[in-house]
Amino acid sequence: MEHAIRFYEAGTPDVLRYEKVEVGAPGPGQVRLRHQAVGLNFADTYFRNGTYPIPLPNGIGVEAAGIVEDVGPDVTNVAVGDRVTYTGFINTLGAYSTARLAPAAPLIKLPAAIASETAAAMTMRGLTAAYLLRRIHPFHAGDTLLLHAAAGGVGLIVSQWAKLLGLRVIGTVSTEEKAAVARAHGCDEVINYSHEDVAKRARELTDGKGVSVVFDSVGKNTFMGSLDSLRRRGLMVCVGTASGTIPPFDPQLLAMKGSLYLTRPALADYIADPAEKAELARELFDQVASGRIKIEINQRYALEDAVQAHRDLESRKTTGSSIFVI
Predict the structure, then answer these.
(1) What is the pTM of this model?
(2) What is the DSSP letter of 312?
(3) Domain count of the chain?
(4) Which one of 5, 92, 121, 268 counts the least CB within 10 Å of its CB?
(5) For the Enoyl reductase (ER) domain, which residue ranges apply (predicted)?
(6) Does some domain include residue 273?
(7) Residue 132 reports pLDDT greater than 90
(8) Strand, coil or helix: 62
(9) CATH no. for residue 51?
């Protein structure tokens, strides 16, 4: 009998239930997938708490890696025995499971050099880092990037990749322990926002000019400080809302603060085109396989411990990537 995490109402981590499930034969466009590792992402908490409304009851989780056990009609991109990884949104919901029926289209074949645990820890985070650094802005060596949550899973990949591109990275963290992690993974300077003013310190570090780009995954609590950290005509990239959604504001604010640019991208729109997704995945896999980017799996959980995993994630106890080991 297989197992999965399901929930019947939106709420705190306690709504998550570890249940026995039946997994049948794949239908058209589907595969039966045996998971080896499952990714734990902050976005999962948005589905669980209702920020991202979905029909209930439902499964949870959008990222995992494993082996194809069976394929349904019309599946041509993968075959039985292939090692694959995937990430997505509604279309891949249900990853917190030992095995499942999954749509074949989002699956990405894994090269031999990438272990399943590594893949589950980096597919969403790595592809996010890839589009942020390779698609969002024409970065040039010497540009300065302000990176919030620099010790998190996305942050550690972004900081390493940014250094490969010759960028100067200023990271923000909440503790001195996380500051040490961020520095070890490429941050040139680190701001501890628990006792430092981020905007003031960012301007001090840039001779009063401000940074070129901000990657802000925190949202409500950091939004204004991020805008105040930018140089004239700088770019604010809102990539998450860990502290809550950003309140409505008058766009005139962007003009008042230096003719700033603002974007709120979503990974789904950067991997919707199969060719673009394949190119981003290739770049990511090459960087990781070569050792130029290291994926830090700092928390491992059993699937039945999903409640504790979500508690740890929301209390900011985690660094790097977290996975469920199946």
Answers:
(1) 0.93
(2) H
(3) 2
(4) 268
(5) 11-324
(6) no
(7) yes
(8) coil
(9) 3.90.180.10
